[in-house]
Amino acid sequence: MTENEIKAWLNRAFYADKKVKAVEMLVQQCRERAQGLSVCYECNDKGKSTVSQNGTENALIKLADMERKLQRQIYELIGTADEVSNAIALLDDDDLETVLIHRYILFHTVEETAEIMHYSPRTIRVKQKKAIEKLCLLLPCFAA
After folding, report:
1. For 80-115, how does the pLDDT look when each residue is reduced to its tens digit (9 = 90+)?
2. Which of 19, 20, 49, 103 lies 20 to 30 Å from 71 when distance is taken between CA atoms?
3. CA-to-CA dists, residue 79 to 70, 84, 103, angstroms
4. For residues 56 and 41, is the Cβ–Cβ distance under 8 A?
C-alpha cells in the first residue's frame, strides 16, 4: 500500500465517527418530531383525526428505524476503530503508536497531538510520516 492509501485506510474511523454523529443528529430530530406530534395530539382527544394518529405513528416508526441505523453505524465504527487500532499496534514502537492513536483514533489535529505529547507540530508530522512509512511495509496483508 502507498502512503496515501494507508492514510485513507487509517481515516476510515474518522469518517465512520462523522457518520455516527450525523445519524445521531437525525435520531434527535426524529425524536423531537415524534414528541412534538404526540404532545400536540395527546391533550386534545376531541376531534382527533386518524391522520394525526397516523402522523404520530409514522414519526415513531421513523424514529425506531433511525435508532436501528444508528446502532448499525456505531457497530461499524467500533469495528473500524478496532481494525485501525490493531494495525497501529503492529508498529511495535510506543512513540509512533501514540502519535497515530492521537491522530487516527482520537482524531486530534497535529497541533493538539503536539501539545498533548509535548512535541513540536513538526516533530509530530515527522513521526506520523515515519509511522505511515512503516505501516506501508506492514499493512499489505493486514488491510487487504
Report:
1. 999 999 999 999 999 999 999 999 999 999 999 999
2. 103
3. 14, 9, 18
4. yes
